[in-house]
Amino acid sequence: MNKRVCFFPGVRDKRLLEMVNWYKNDIQILKDLGCDVKIATYLSEILPNFDLYFSWWATTSIYPLIKAQLSRKSIIVVIGGSEVVHLDKEPTAAAYPNKPWYVRKAIKYCVKHATMIACISESIKKEVDSLGAKKSRVVYLGIDTKLYKPNPSKPKDIVFTVSHFTENHIQRKRLFEIIEAAEIILSDFPELKFVIAGAKTTAKTKIKERIKDAGLERYFLLLEGISEAEKIEYYQRSLVYLQPTLHEAFGVSNAEAMSCGIPVVSSKVAAVPEVVGDCGLYADPFDARDIANKVLILLRNDELRKNLGHRARDRIKRHLSYNKRRETMREVIHSL
């Protein structure tokens, strides 16, 4: 392609560009496509002499958008967070209606004036289009299936969940409901362990207290700040990946687990069915008993569990892989 591309991730800590797969993958995709990529994490680094601007998030993309307009160049904005969710789906400060008025204006301006909005799911595309997007396209996130892969040699002995220990995630990822469901599941499978992994926060204390009140300390392992390699190992050790969520713009953890050949129990909300399809089971995120019953179906039926795991891996390889995102992004850039 031979384009000079300014990549603006909307974060200042450059370490995140290696730690967060969606940034890392998109930088590599642009390089794979023959682009000369320059990373800008500060506004002063968004210079006017690029052929294309590539930015993440509707909130912070206002800065490279203005630079692109002044330079009369194209800009691709990747949108995939709660910032554009304006219906009653995401009851957090991150949702569009809960933003300050000036942030909402910046989001709307970005959505309306970007050359192309790359939406990470159909669910997000609907939200973006309702905010006035002129040109949008679904470009699903891609999982590195060579990295996230099954490992038959690993013992399968846990139910795994990835969730930060924040107030928002406790509510949205239904961590208290998972603890309630575990009480029911453990009555039939007392050797099972539940592992929850996420970033370190003070809200973790609430989870520990709830686990202690239920008398389940020896059945739960709460992990903070694990490496990607450690996370993959826990996926590979999982009998079931459990994420009864209230909303997902995509659901990266579901997709990573599926790529490792693990069946998912999640919720039929937002973008989750786009990712999981018929390769997992859906539970009511407000009903701990229903969550437990869906997990028990998989634990009691080895053939079903393995069949769903195989189909899940195949689904990611066919539709949601790194290569698929690269080819779709190639089409997007060519269309400009």
Descriptive overview:
The structure is a single chain. Strand 3 (52-56), helix 3 (62-71) and strand 4 form a beta-alpha-beta unit. The model has no long low-confidence stretch (mean pLDDT 94). With 336 residues, this protein is α/β, with parallel strands linked by helices. It contains 14 helices and 12 strands. The strands form 2 sheets. Strands 2-1-3-4-5-6 form a 6-stranded parallel β-sheet, with helices on both faces. The longest helix is centred in the last third of the chain and has 18 residues, at 302-319.
CATH superfamily of the largest domain: Glycogen Phosphorylase B
C-alpha-based Rg, rounded = 20 Å
Distance between the termini: 12 Å
Spell out the helices and strands N to C. Answer: EHHEEHEHEHEEHHEHEHEHEHEHHH
How confident is the prediction overall: mean pLDDT? Answer: 94
Lateral strand order in the biggest sheet: 2-1-3-4-5-6
| Beta strands, count | 12
Helix content: 40-55%
Q: What's the story with the biggest beta sheet?
A: 6 strands, parallel
Which shape, going by the Cα principal axes?
A: globular
Strand content: 15-25%
**Distinct helical segment count:** 14
